[in-house]
Amino acid sequence: MQVLKSKTLVSDAAAAPRAARRATVARPSVKVQAAPRLPPDTPKDREGVVGREWLGTILSRFGPVKDKAQNTTTLEFEKPLLELDKRIKEVRKVAEENGVDVSASIAELEGRAKQLRKETYSRLTPVQRLQVARHPNRPTCLDIILNITDKFVELHGDRAGLDDPAIVCGIGSINGTPFMMIGHQKGRNTKENIRRNFGMPQPNGYRKALRFMRHADKFGLPIITFVDTPGAYAGKTAEELGQGEAIAVNLREMFGLRVPIISVVIGEGGSGGALAIGCANRNLIMENAVYYVASPEACAAILWKSRSAAGEATEALRITSAELVKFGVMDHIVPEPLGGAHSDPIAAFPMIKESILNVYSEYAVMSEEEIKLDRYAKFRKLGQFQEFVVKGGDWRTALAERAATAGTTTKTGAWAATEAEARYIEQLVDADEKWEKLMAEGAEWLNKPVQPPGLGRTGIMDVAVSMVEARRRKQQQAGQVHKSAPAPASSNGTVVNAAA
Amino acid sequence: MVPQAKPVVGRVPGRSGAPCVVAAGEANGSPIVTGPISVNPSMSPALDPVAAAASPAEAGKSAKAVDRSKGLWTRCDKCGTILYIKHLKEHHHICFGCNYHLKMSSMERINHLIDAGTWRPLDETLSPVDPLEFSDLKLYTDRIKEAQEKTGLQDGVRTGTGLLHGIPVALGVMDFTYMGGSMGSVVGEKLTRLIEYATQEGMPVIIVCTSGGARMQEGIFSLMQMAKISAALHVHQNCANLLYIAILTSPTTGGVTASFGMLGDVIIAEPQAIIGFAGRRVIEQTLQEQLPDDFQTAEYLLEHGLLDLVVPRSFLKGALYEIIDFYRAAPYKKRGMIPFGVQHGTFLTTEEKVRRRWAQWSRGGNGNSKDLAVAGDSSAVSYRELVSSYRTLVAGDAASSGSSRGAAAPLDLQELLADPEALPSAMELAKQSKIEWMARTEELLAAQQDKMQYVFRMK
Q1: How far is B457 from chain A (nearest CA, A)?
Q2: Which residues of chain A have a CB within 8 Å of the CB of B324?
């Protein structure tokens, strides 16, 4: 009420000069309707459309695909299934025309089709899985988002001059909990694919993703990312805008976010372009999705020196979901309906939603520090190496030999497998001590950070040392008073007489 | 990616553009170079492995990487001038004819950047394994063996600490001779440990990058190393407010450019270095258009705002010193924080270190002897002993009957320093009891706000 009052006062005071001004301004008698302003990415042929029709053109982008002519692709290994399905249809049609009761044979055929489908899809080779992951009818990021969220709004722009259609960002709520959704978007037909650049983002796309991740960090929205890209776009402008730098900054900044990040690989995960939005607390991968460090074609061209070895490369690179979970790189597999997600997308969506919510529920109770540590630890443990000096990489033999030897000790008694190793260890520790002296001399150049209590020293040592100190203080006092010989030293470091 | 693809207009991969001519007769003569100076080094046949593999006949001579450690002379990659190896080493492997920076091995780079006698290598015992059981035209295990024998390194990076004109730095240098500098699990682990160590000690990190990309034989693990190193850099740069300088040398491509190569607070490149993300040929095939000659060179990236500096090799060490000096003297320098504990594991040396410290502690006294603590064999005296000896000396403990000075009166250090006769003997005494080190350590400890440092450091 106060506000309204003050408003009227203001308007009254200003009314007189405004009225005076109004009289003097010349106005055209005809009211010109301002042209409706269309969004900048409206296709050119729609410029004449206004009003409700315009709304329809915008929303059609989210609707089913118009031209379905040649749209369903069948992969090679799916052809027998297609034959069976056609047979069933034919039989049904014939039965309808002739009025014959064929329910028995139809049931038998359907049973056989189901059996064949189960057999095929449970024994997919890596090459077949790659084909399924790249299937043109596979549900895209937007398909999934729009089907698992209650509400979703897509947001745009990297606030630095460009937007990237290959990455989709927005806020959506699943069962009432809002999430920041970020994902690579492929197209559903050729025209859409060209618009979306086949899901290959440019640096502005990664910067857009980073902006939204920081936005989510600021407001406390958990992040879900959908990975589906052949890789980052390799182009002249992309290089000039800093493709490498954009990916690197994303990798670094994602480890500083205080909200949980859940990443779902829904199609193919191509190398750095996928990892730039895939540094997550949990990595989920769909059953038939793949994740690779280099596409099998590129790998074949470089290592096998010919593109025709792509099949071998696919097998060798171990890109399927089961192998990735075995390696510890991915955490969970999201099961797909029988026949792959492309054959029954409606059934795939609840599986994805369920997996995401299950994983998120673990993070809903964690603190920010725990979440950051969880993400750091997840990536810190990845990598396979060994810590011996092994010439020729033959680590199995070296390990066996090492376990078998009796070994020697260094001067102070530390175990080493061989004499040479003992000398080496001593050398290393001498070098370390020398280095610590050098570092102490150069102390003005150092800026040692505050360390968490557990890092670098264990709690038990704090207790032990304080007890030793107390004992010494007491001994000193006793020494001062009695001027007697010092108490005998204990042979080990533990405090013998704690109660003294 | 078919090697026999139709040639891109104006440039055939595998051949330099109008070649620089140094005729055989002029080999010993003038260093004047005829021919274009701005030839893109990436077109040099020595750096073009795919084309070289495709046409073995013509590129046989220059296809193999020239082994510069043996032999008396070599050719410059760019202008073809004959270069004597001895002279090359003196001039930091820079061609005197065209100032092209030839490749240096990692040990040579370390000698160039680190003061003599102060290099301490870390994690030399990490070696690669074969997680995917990969074999392309050769078994991966065989490739590892070959590369280890050829270079003497366990994997493609040398990490360690040293003094750079007196500054303690953590330095990592990648080596192109080991499988083309490819980044695998070992490279990732070594660099991550280096960065974590530097974060803990408060040192700046310098990484000299040179790489052909991620190691495909290790598959997805190579990719994850990018994330691992970037995570360590996040803690180092953002949480602990410490400096990281990336030095990009030729060639730096692929996964390294897309992770730690481009994350430096200051990014320095060498002149004419090839730095990029995607390969030049891949971009040409994607776009079907001609790329400029100097595409993906350091100067090109400098123009497009992706680098801070292009520094020739002869100035590099001095430039690094000056840059780090700015950061040392920053007026509002803030002490950072390590946000979460990544406990360092028990490595090869931990047991030895623990035993040594224990031996010293038990030998040096548990505070039972009232004498000035005399340092044992090891140069690292325990804190406890230092405190007790310092207090004994300064406070003039009446019960210190074993003191060689014999005076029961409290010692006035200012008086002592002014006294010319007593000073030498006092200095002698001080050396025995390491008091000057105590004073320095005291300063260091006072500068730190946390509690006492303990003898046992699990590192």
Answers
A1: 6
A2: 445
How high is the pLDDT of residue A388? 67
Q: Which amino acid is at A232?
A: A
Single-letter code of the amino acid located at A304: W
Angle (CA) B174 B177 B179, round 5°:
90
Write out chain B residues lying below 8 Å of A394, CB-based.
Answer: 141, 145
Q: Which domain holds residue A89?
A: 76-123
Most confident of A452-466, B12-26, B48-62, B213-227: B213-227
- Mean local confidence (pLDDT), B134-153: 93
Interface ipTM: 0.79
Q: Which residue of B has its CA nearest to A314?
A: B219
How many residues would you count in chain B?
459
Predicted confidence (pLDDT) at residue B373 exceeds the cutoff of 80: no
Q: Hey, where are the domains in chain B?
A: 7-90, 106-327, 342-458
CA terminus-to-terminus distance, chain B: 48
DSSP labels, A2-64: HHHHHHHHHHHHHHHHHHHHHHHS---SSPPPPPPPPPTT--GGGTT--HHHHHHHHHGGGS-
Of B121, B335, B343, the CB nearest to A454: B343
Are A118 and A135 within one domain?
no
Q: What is the pLDDT of residue B384?
A: 58
Contact B127, A389 (CB under 8 A): yes
**B174 - beta bridge partners?**
B157
| b/e map B88-106, b = 16+ CB within 10 Å | beeebbbbebbbbbbbbbb
Candidates A250, A293, A331, A472: best to mutate against B (most CBs of B within 10 A) is: A293
Residue of B385, B389, B383 lying closest to B453 (CA atoms):
B383
The single-letter code of the amino acid at A41 is D
Residues A88 and A223 in one domain: no
Which of B230, B333, B337 shows the shortest C-beta gap to A248? B230
The answer to whether position A377 is within a domain reads: yes
The residue type of A346 is: I
Disruptive mutation site among A213, A251, A324, A444 for chain B (greatest number of B CBs within 10 Å): A251
Of A232, A393, A448, the CB nearest to B141: A393
Q: Which of A271, A272, A486 sits opposite B369 (nearest CB)?
A: A486
Residue B19 is predicted with a pLDDT of 39
Domain B106-327: which CATH class? alpha beta
- At B413 the pLDDT is 62
Distance (Å, rounded) from C-alpha A100 to C-alpha A315? Answer: 49
**CA atoms within 13 Å, Cβ hemisphere of A405:** 14
| Of the candidate ranges A104-118, B39-53, B244-258, B275-289, the one whose mean pLDDT is the lowest | B39-53
The torsion angles phi and psi of B276, rounded to 5 degrees, stand at -165, 180
Which of A381, A401, A427 is a domain's end point?
Answer: A381
Total domains in chain A come to 2
Best residue of B4, B114, B126, B136 to probe chain A, by most A CBs closer than 10 Å: B136
Residues A338-367 have pLDDT tens digits of: 889 998 999 999 999 999 999 999 999 999
pLDDT, one tens digit per residue, over A445-468 is 999 998 776 554 445 555 666 677
Question: Rounded to whole angstroms, how far apart are CA atoms A219 and B441?
Answer: 45
Strand order in the sheet with B120-122: B120-122, B157-164, B167-174, B205-211, B244-252, B266-269, B309-310
CB A383 within 8 A of CB B131: no
* Distance of residue B82 Cα from the nearest chain A Cα, in angstroms: 31
Residues B379, A429: Cα–Cα separation, whole Å: 12
Residues A216 and A270 grouped into a single domain:
yes
| A247 and A104 in a common domain | no
Residue A54 CB contacts under 8 Å (≥ 6 apart), including other chains: A36, A38, A42, A46
Instruction: Give the Cα separation of B355 and B350 in Å (integer).
Output: 9
